[in-house]
Structure formats: structure tokens, C-alpha cells
Design a protein that fits this description.
Signal peptide: 1-19
Keywords: Signal
Structural class: mainly alpha
Strand content: under 5%
Distance between the termini: 94 Å
Protein name: Lipoprotein
Amino acid sequence: MSKTTKVVLALSLVAFVSACNRQPEPQPVAAAPIAAEPTFTGKYR
């Protein structure tokens, strides 16, 4: 094989391996809904 063919084959192999080795992107986590504070009604005064 010629030197050019070896270089092209090596670059193709590196590109293939790097494309297959990607880590999955983390999914955004939905924030928990904020509950309102209970209001003082004066029931037990």
C-alpha cells in the first residue's frame, strides 16, 4: 500500500472510532414545582 493510502485509512479509522465513542448528552432535569407557603388563617387563635 502506498503511504497516502495508509494515511487516509488511518484518518478514517480515527474518525470512525471517535464518532462511535461519543457520550450521550445528559437530559435536562425538570425543576420541581414550588409549593406556596400555607397562610395563617387564625383558626386556632
